[in-house]
Every structure is written in C-alpha cells, then in structure tokens.
Specification:
- With 397 residues, the chain is mainly beta.
- It has one domain: Kelch-type beta propeller (Neuraminidase, 6 Propeller), CATH 2.120.10.80.
- Helices cover 2% and strands 46% of the residues.
- The chain has a 5-stranded antiparallel β-sheet, with no helix packed on it. The chain has a 5-stranded antiparallel β-sheet with strand order 2-23-22-21-20, with no helix packed on it. A 4-stranded antiparallel β-sheet has the order 3-30-29-28, with no helix packed on it.
- A hairpin with a 2-residue loop joins strand 24 (312-318) and strand 25.
C-alpha cells in the first residue's frame, strides 16, 4: 500500500507509506440501525486469499459530516492553524505526551510535526527545526530520544530530539536521491531503512545511529533488486523489516542491523505491504485488504477484516484487545474501524460513525493517560486528528 502525501511527482516517488498506506482511529456509542458485523475469516498462511482490491487512496473523496457530540463517540479535531492542513500519517507517545508527523497538503509541500499533551489540542512541537524542503515518513522512540526520518533535496534526513524541546536536523551519509523510510530503536542504537524511489532496481539501505544525530551507513539490506521496504520494528534480540521483494511480501531479520536474513510470506502476492507494527507482542503487517499477524515473526496468519474492502492502514492496542483502522469499499469509501480481543479470535466491525464520513485515520495509539484512543490522518475539511473518549468502551463484551 502506498501513501501519497502530495501530487508532486518527485515527492510521490520519495514517500511510500506504509499504509495507504496508511496510517489510524474510530466508533460512536449512539444508537444506530446498522449492527456490527462479526466474523472470523482467518485462514492459515499459504491458503488461498480473497481477491485483492485496488490500492486505497490516501485522501477522503467525500464531503465531511459533523462529528458526533456524544462524549464517548468519535470526534474529528483540527490541528493548529500554524501547522495547517496536513496528512498526519504516524503518531507515537513520547515523554508523557503525543507526537504526530506527516506532510502539509496545501501550498509547497513540507514536513509537519505536531505535539499534544492530551490528544485533544495539537500545536507545532516546541523548538522543531524548519520543515521547508522536507518530506517526512516515519519516527521512532528510544532511550536517547525521538527521531523522525524522511527526505530533503540533499538526501535522506533525520530530525532528532532528546526531550521534545531541543531538535537537530541531520543529513544521513551517502544519501543523495534517497529517502529514509522508517526507524526503530534497539540495543542502544537507532536503525533506519530507506530506498531510492527514483530507480526501480535500487539497493535497500540501512543506517545506524546512537543518538539520532550522527549516522553511519550500514551494508545494504538488499543489493540492486526490485525490493521496497515499508517498515522496521525492534525485536527482543534485534530488528525486523517488512516490504516486498520481486513482487512477493517479505521480511528481513537482523540482530545488529548490519546482516539481514530474508524470508517470504507463503502463497502468491496479495498486494502491496503496508506498515509493519509490533503491538503488545504481536506482529501486524497489512497487505492489500488483508491483515497478516504473527506471534514470533516466522509463522503468519492471514485475516480479511470484514468491511475493510479497501485496505487496513494500521493496528493499535486498546484495553483488552486491538483496534484496526482502514477504508471501506462501501458507498463513498469512508474510514472504518474494527476491534479484536487479545487472543485475536475474531475481528468485529464497528458501527459507522459520522466522524469518519469525510476522514481517514492512518495511524492510531492510546494516549499516555489512557483517556483517549487517538487517530491521526486527514479529512476533506483539513482536520487531521480523531479521538475516542472511551477506550474501555471499545473492548469486546
């Protein structure tokens, strides 16, 4: 799944998100005649998949509808005018608050970083460097701080902060024409991955840093080949990268970020892979309209979540289970949400909520205080944040 941040051709090539990508939020507790659809369509890895759907677009195609006023429903929130209309494709908790990154959608495209202490009010992060000339793709949190990665006219870049206040803007080495796509922290180091989207057959690249500011180029994950990397997560003993290799969904595993072992998911290709996530000890990898999951990263189970005909964007944790956000194939293709129990026995599609009529959630996380489920994404009206005020109310009965 490919997330297009802008219609500018050069920037489009640089940024692939993971999720179409992307990235998440969604439910109303008000009465509705539509009943949740419950079903388990999980099939063992390697069994025939349902027919694929076209890769979902990254932006809503319909007029927005007023968000519900109920305190436990979803609400669509604007970000600060200082940030402007933006696709916020990734959100994470950091030092008791929330940070979201993405790119603006009006004027000259540039990076956008927003911070919030509670999930409701969003402002530009204090001390953040200039976003001019940048496109941002992902971020990672580690012991030495937070790192955002992306691209500039000069090559791959990182924005690093140890405290959310003091930031540095850094050019990664040997990166002319390259994009840093995703970054993760493990074993005292950040490892970032990237690709040259200007070339169909290009190496899949990795860098390492102890602090997010000074980087070293690592051996390529793959040499010049048709490989695209979409995400990296930290393992208990290393790193895992997901992407595609010559048309097949694949993962790469490394203990140090310098030497990688590739394995392909079983069965024929089923679509473009999205953003790899590790949530509550469970790996999730969206691929087209399907969601692959694994406990140990070797044996994968494929599930078609009901109602997600145009793709799964992201998965997050809620009390007692998981939440998935994506795009429906019904009607005007609004945003949709489903929940699953902690054992992933089945996914339950949630009732349609007006907040999602003109909005998509591309990433989702539980606020640090547990008061809100926070999704970031985009909307027809320019709002970028969706919140749900009753996380426990989303849990399965």
């Amino acid at each position: 799944m490919t997330l297009m941040w802008t219609r500018d051709r050069t920037v489009r090539r640089r940024l692939v998100l993971l999720g179409a990508v992307l990235l998440a939020g969604c439910v109303s507790t008000s009465p509705t005649p539509q009943q949740p659809s419950v079903g388990s369509t999980a099939s063992p890895a390697g069994s025939p998949a349902a027919a694929g759907s076209p890769t979902p677009a990254a932006s809503p195609t319909i007029a927005p509808t007023a968000a519900p006023s109920e305190p436990t429903g979803w609400q669509l929130l604007p970000v600060s005018p200082a940030i402007g209309a933006a696709d916020l494709a990734s959100v994470a908790t950091f030092r008791g608050g929330l940070v979201a990154v993405g790119n603006t959608t009006t004027g000259d495209p540039r990076g956008a970083i927003a911070c919030s202490t509670d999930g409701r009010t969003w402002q530009p992060c204090a001390g953040a460097p200039s976003m001019e000339g940048l496109t941002l793709a992902g971020m990672g949190v580690g012991d030495s701080g937070l790192v955002v990665v992306g691209a500039s006219d000069r090559g791959a870049v990182s924005l690093a902060t140890p405290d959310g206040v003091s930031w540095s803007r850094n050019l990664l080495p040997n990166t002319k024409g390259l994009t840093a796509q995703s970054v993760a922290w493990h074993g005292g180091r950040f490892v970032a991955i990237g690709v040259d989207y200007e070339t169909e057959a290009s190496p899949s690249i990795a860098w390492m840093s102890l602090d997010g500011r000074t980087w070293t180029r690592l051996p390529d994950i793959e040499g010049p080949a048709q490989a695209t990397l979409t995400g990296i997560v930290a393992l208990p003993n290393g790193f895992m990268v997901a992407g595609s290799f010559r048309g097949h969904v694949a993962t790469w595993v490394s203990t140090d970020g310098a030497s990688w072992t590739r394995s392909e998911l079983p069965g024929p290709p089923t679509g473009d892979p999205g953003r790899l996530r590790l949530v509550e000890g469970q790996f999730f990898l969206p691929v087209g309209q399907d969601l692959w999951s694994s406990r140990e990263g070797r044996h994968w189970l494929r599930t078609a979540i009901p109602g997600f005909g145009n793709g799964v964007f992201a998965v997050g944790a809620i009390p007692g289970g998981f939440i998935a956000v994506g795009r429906s194939s019904e009607g005007e293709q609004p945003g949709v949400v489903a929940i699953a129990d902690a054992g992933l026995r089945f996914w339950m599609l949630q009732p349609a909520d007006p907040a999602f009529d003109g909005a998509l959630a591309l990433d989702v996380v539980l606020s640090p205080d547990g008061r809100y489920v926070v999704g970031v994404g985009n909307s027809i009206g320019g709002s970028s944040v969706l919140i749900h005020a009753d996380p426990a109310g989303l849990a399965l009965p």
